Amino acid sequence: MSVEQKVLEINENFYQAFNRGDLNLMRSVWAQKDSIVCIHPGWEVIRGIDIIIQSWENIFAGSENLEIKLSDIKVTGDGGMVWVSCQENLFAMSMSGVQVSKVHATNLFEKIENHWKMVLHHASSVPQLSRQEQISTN
Fold it and tell me: Can you give the residue ranges of the SnoaL-like domain (predicted)?
Protein backbone atom coordinates (compact mmCIF):
# COMPACT_ATOMS: atom_id res chain seq x y z
CA MET A 1 0.00 0.00 0.00
CA SER A 2 1.37 3.45 -0.92
CA VAL A 3 1.88 6.26 1.59
CA GLU A 4 -1.02 8.12 -0.02
CA GLN A 5 -3.34 5.12 0.39
CA LYS A 6 -2.30 4.60 4.02
CA VAL A 7 -2.88 8.24 4.91
CA LEU A 8 -6.22 8.32 3.08
CA GLU A 9 -7.28 5.25 5.07
CA ILE A 10 -6.45 6.98 8.37
CA ASN A 11 -8.18 10.14 7.16
CA GLU A 12 -11.27 8.06 6.33
CA ASN A 13 -11.15 6.52 9.83
CA PHE A 14 -11.18 10.05 11.27
CA TYR A 15 -14.41 10.90 9.42
CA GLN A 16 -15.95 7.50 10.21
CA ALA A 17 -15.28 8.24 13.89
CA PHE A 18 -17.06 11.57 13.47
CA ASN A 19 -20.06 10.10 11.65
CA ARG A 20 -20.43 7.27 14.19
CA GLY A 21 -19.63 9.35 17.27
CA ASP A 22 -16.94 6.78 18.06
CA LEU A 23 -14.48 8.21 20.61
CA ASN A 24 -12.30 5.07 20.63
CA LEU A 25 -11.81 5.21 16.86
CA MET A 26 -11.24 8.98 17.09
CA ARG A 27 -8.55 8.48 19.75
CA SER A 28 -6.84 5.77 17.65
CA VAL A 29 -6.41 8.16 14.71
CA TRP A 30 -4.56 10.82 16.73
CA ALA A 31 -0.94 10.81 17.89
CA GLN A 32 -0.83 10.38 21.65
CA LYS A 33 1.22 13.49 22.41
CA ASP A 34 0.79 16.90 24.00
CA SER A 35 1.96 18.76 20.89
CA ILE A 36 -0.99 17.77 18.66
CA VAL A 37 -3.41 20.53 17.61
CA CYS A 38 -7.11 20.69 16.73
CA ILE A 39 -8.91 23.77 15.45
CA HIS A 40 -12.67 23.39 15.07
CA PRO A 41 -14.52 26.09 13.08
CA GLY A 42 -14.92 29.15 15.29
CA TRP A 43 -13.05 27.62 18.25
CA GLU A 44 -9.80 28.50 19.94
CA VAL A 45 -6.77 26.28 19.32
CA ILE A 46 -6.90 23.03 21.34
CA ARG A 47 -3.67 21.21 22.23
CA GLY A 48 -3.08 17.74 23.65
CA ILE A 49 -4.82 14.41 23.20
CA ASP A 50 -7.04 14.49 26.29
CA ILE A 51 -8.45 17.96 25.63
CA ILE A 52 -8.92 17.19 21.93
CA ILE A 53 -10.83 13.97 22.68
CA GLN A 54 -12.96 15.89 25.21
CA SER A 55 -13.81 18.40 22.47
CA TRP A 56 -14.97 15.56 20.21
CA GLU A 57 -17.03 14.08 23.04
CA ASN A 58 -18.77 17.46 23.43
CA ILE A 59 -19.36 17.72 19.68
CA PHE A 60 -20.72 14.16 19.48
CA ALA A 61 -23.11 14.86 22.38
CA GLY A 62 -24.71 17.71 20.42
CA SER A 63 -24.67 16.28 16.90
CA GLU A 64 -26.81 13.15 16.75
CA ASN A 65 -28.19 14.01 13.33
CA LEU A 66 -25.00 15.22 11.68
CA GLU A 67 -23.07 13.55 8.88
CA ILE A 68 -19.97 14.58 6.94
CA LYS A 69 -19.29 13.63 3.34
CA LEU A 70 -15.97 14.64 1.79
CA SER A 71 -15.18 16.17 -1.57
CA ASP A 72 -12.16 17.77 -3.25
CA ILE A 73 -9.71 15.48 -1.41
CA LYS A 74 -6.02 16.17 -2.07
CA VAL A 75 -3.00 14.41 -0.52
CA THR A 76 0.38 16.16 -0.41
CA GLY A 77 3.74 15.43 1.16
CA ASP A 78 6.20 12.62 1.53
CA GLY A 79 8.68 11.24 4.00
CA GLY A 80 7.50 11.66 7.57
CA MET A 81 4.72 14.24 7.06
CA VAL A 82 1.69 14.12 4.77
CA TRP A 83 -1.39 16.32 4.75
CA VAL A 84 -4.88 15.90 3.38
CA SER A 85 -6.90 18.93 2.32
CA CYS A 86 -10.59 18.44 1.69
CA GLN A 87 -14.02 19.96 1.81
CA GLU A 88 -16.27 18.65 4.56
CA ASN A 89 -19.90 18.76 3.44
CA LEU A 90 -21.98 18.69 6.63
CA PHE A 91 -25.57 17.51 6.55
CA ALA A 92 -27.65 18.23 9.66
CA MET A 93 -31.17 16.87 10.05
CA SER A 94 -33.60 19.15 11.84
CA MET A 95 -37.35 19.66 12.14
CA SER A 96 -37.14 22.13 9.24
CA GLY A 97 -35.31 19.69 6.97
CA VAL A 98 -31.71 19.09 6.00
CA GLN A 99 -29.25 21.92 6.59
CA VAL A 100 -26.07 21.81 4.51
CA SER A 101 -22.85 23.64 5.31
CA LYS A 102 -19.33 23.45 3.97
CA VAL A 103 -16.03 23.45 5.83
CA HIS A 104 -12.50 23.38 4.44
CA ALA A 105 -10.19 21.10 6.42
CA THR A 106 -6.50 20.31 6.52
CA ASN A 107 -5.42 17.15 8.32
CA LEU A 108 -1.70 16.66 8.96
CA PHE A 109 -0.31 13.17 9.55
CA GLU A 110 3.08 12.23 10.95
CA LYS A 111 4.76 8.85 10.69
CA ILE A 112 5.35 7.74 14.28
CA GLU A 113 6.88 4.34 15.01
CA ASN A 114 5.93 3.12 11.53
CA HIS A 115 2.27 4.23 11.85
CA TRP A 116 0.59 7.31 10.40
CA LYS A 117 -1.10 9.44 13.07
CA MET A 118 -2.99 12.72 12.92
CA VAL A 119 -1.13 15.62 14.54
CA LEU A 120 -3.29 18.50 13.26
CA HIS A 121 -6.92 18.97 12.25
CA HIS A 122 -7.75 22.52 11.16
CA ALA A 123 -11.25 23.22 9.89
CA SER A 124 -12.67 26.58 8.75
CA SER A 125 -16.23 27.35 7.71
CA VAL A 126 -16.83 28.37 4.12
CA PRO A 127 -18.95 31.52 3.91
CA GLN A 128 -22.24 31.04 2.12
CA LEU A 129 -22.32 33.29 -0.93
CA SER A 130 -25.55 34.77 -2.22
CA ARG A 131 -26.50 34.01 -5.83
CA GLN A 132 -25.38 37.55 -6.83
CA GLU A 133 -21.97 37.08 -5.16
CA GLN A 134 -21.53 33.74 -6.95
CA ILE A 135 -22.27 35.35 -10.32
CA SER A 136 -19.90 38.29 -9.73
CA THR A 137 -16.99 35.98 -8.81
CA ASN A 138 -17.31 34.03 -12.07
Answer: 7-126
Q: Dmax of the chain from CA atoms?
A: 51
Q: In what order do the strands lie in the sheet with 46-47?
A: 46-47, 37-39, 115-125, 97-112, 81-94, 66-78
What CATH number does residue 60 fall under? 3.10.450.50
Count how many domains the chain has. Answer: 1
Task: Please check whether residue 31 is in contact with residue 118, taking contact to mean a CB–CB distance below 8 angstroms.
Answer: yes
Q: What is the pLDDT of residues 68-110, one digit of tens each?
A: 999 999 999 988 999 999 999 999 887 888 888 999 999 999 9
Which secondary-structure segment (H or E) carries 6? helix 3-20
What's the domain range around 62? 3-137
